[in-house]
Amino acid sequence: MRAAQAVYGPRVPPRVCPEATAGTEIVVCARKQDDTEFRVKSTRELRPDSHQATYNGLPRAPNVHGIPTCAETGNPCIGFGKVPPPIYYIDLTKIPVAPAGSDADKISKGELRQP
Fold first, then answer.
1. What's the predicted TM-score (pTM) here?
2. Contact indicator for 33, 16 with CB cutoff of 8 Å
3. Which residue numbers in the chain have pLDDT < 70?
């Protein structure tokens, strides 16, 4: 890039004007000017979503815009499943004590098999 700029880029004028040594010599000096108007914009500046603009070593998420859905293609898809059925919570402190001699009392004591 530097070699190409040295060959094709604008010439840098000398910073100090040399003094004329003879009376017939003409010295022309130019002031340094802003030459950004003559430069061509790079792809990085023109297209911020281009590879040159985004390739900086950081991982990027893939662009999935435009990928057809499973319904559009008719192919089976791999999904994340569905919501599991709800879990019912039972507050065991609210269950009354089984009356003496009932089936529940006999099952809790092991006298009767659970149906």
1. 0.24
2. no
3. 12-15, 20, 79
